[in-house]
Amino acid sequence: MNLSDLLKDSAYKLSQFKPAQIAALEAGMTLKTTDKATTPYVTCLVRGKPIKLTPEEAVRQLYVMVLKDDLGYPVSRMELEYGVTFGREKKRADICIFDKDKPTTPYILVELKKPKLKDGKEQLKSYCNATGA
């Protein structure tokens, strides 16, 4: 199984990622087979533990590679599924990069959305307002 197989029934595309990044993610894939299905897993680049590789998770891992390899942000300053609090309500941003001088302060928030989804920008603005990122 490769990433094209994983994404074939979704609207996600790989055109914005480098072939080397796609190959690296595919090389790290393992398959777990049960009576009902074969499921791809990969070791998360940030959390360091095996995670089920869904189309959204594949795109998230590829964006982590872009942030790390192309933009120079160390994985040690990243957190996935970062909790953002709005009063009593708590949401999660897909990727948080923390400030290098204030390691508990969000510096950049990344919110990944399905292609053609319109509400992502407003959601990201609200996350940035809530955290000061």
Describe this structure in words.
The chain has 133 residues and is of the alpha+beta class. It folds into two domains: 1-72, no CATH class; 75-133, no CATH class. It is built from four helices and six strands, in the order ααβββαβββα. Strand 1 and strand 2 (38-43) form a beta hairpin. It is globular, with a radius of gyration of 16 Å. The chain starts with a helix and ends with a helix. The mean pLDDT is 88.
Short synopsis of the structure:
By secondary structure, the protein is an alpha+beta fold. The chain folds into 2 domains: 1-72, no CATH class; 75-133, no CATH class. The protein is built from 4 helices and 6 strands; from the N terminus they run H-H-E-E-E-H-E-E-E-H.
Highlighted features:
133 residues, alpha+beta, three-stranded antiparallel sheet, 4 helices, 6 strands, 28% strand
Task: Write the H/E string, N to C.
Answer: HHEEEHEEEH
Total of domains: 2
Distance between the termini: 38 Å
Largest sheet: 3 strands, antiparallel
Query: Approximately what portion of the residues adopt beta-strand conformation?
Result: 25-35%
How many H/I helical runs? 4
Give average pLDDT, whole number: 88
- Strand order in space, largest sheet: 1-2-3
Please give the radius of gyration in angstroms: 16 Å
The secondary structure category is alpha+beta
Which percent range fits the helix content?
Answer: 25-40%
Identify the quaternary structure here.
Answer: single chain
Instruction: Give the overall shape, derived from the CA principal axes.
Output: globular
Number of strands: 6
Which ranges are low-confidence, i.e. pLDDT below 50, for 5 or more consecutive residues?
none
